[in-house]
Amino acid sequence: MEMNIGMRGGKRFGRWLWIGVTCLPTVAIPGIVTLPGTTQALLRADEPLGVAASYGAGVHAYYDGNYQTAYDALTAAIEAGTLDPRAYYYRGLTSIKLGKIDDEINGDFAEGASRETMGRGGISISRSLERVQGRDRQRLEAYRQRARVAAVQRDEAAIRQRYIGVEETAPDILRRRVPNAATTPAEALNAPAPKPRGPATRPAPKPRDLPATPRKAPVEPPAEDDPFSAPASGRATDDPFGDEPLRDDRLDQRDERMEDSAAETDDGFDQRDRNREENSAELDDSFDQRDAQQEREAAGGF
Q1: Of 18-22, 134-138, 223-227, 266-270, which range is least confident?
Q2: Contact of 89 with 109, CB cutoff 8 Å
Q3: pTM passes above 0.70
């Protein structure tokens, strides 16, 4: 009776030992890392438990020398969609032991190296392959080295292409033109002008061509044919030594004409000054509207 109980306990212990050896190395519990021998076993959170168990069984069968069993278990894990590159590595190593063709071996090594360089699996590959040495390890490392070089070249090409794309789009951004004031909507024109940021040097407005004000020719007094003729009626004087009223009248008339001409000239200059001031005000309004439009576009991200 006691012997039967001992045998049952031994079988039960052996069963749990087999489950622990087969499954536990492929199950990652938060805060706990299992190390089967010298192989670090880490599992992605999205890796199915059955797939991980199949991979773990294949690795243990490989190290036990059961290469056909290892090959079948690793093939099952790969066909189930494992993301672990080590499944391809170990199946390639198992194929070498089974004497399979080189195309199958090289295909597994190349696929595993490609997945490793793309970062799939999230595990330490080198720690897992520490127990694999000799020619088989050298053959595997050759594919891993080629994959690393190809990954570096691929990254450099992507960076170069991105830089070329930035250079090609730069001229389009620099050639972006500001819309003219003629196409600016009425609301933008009626918007209050922004405060000036500083003194700006602006070209002097070009004066308009003003029509020349014709000046009246001075009226020459009528010449007297006979300087010794009698003076006109009402202007003559009996005193030869008195004032000369006729000469004074002529001088007064000349002064009046000169004053009229000067007044007309002053009116012309005043009109020209007013026109210049109006042109300057219009030009200032145009510059203010353009500055306001540029600031609004800069604030809008254009």
Answers
A1: 18-22
A2: yes
A3: no
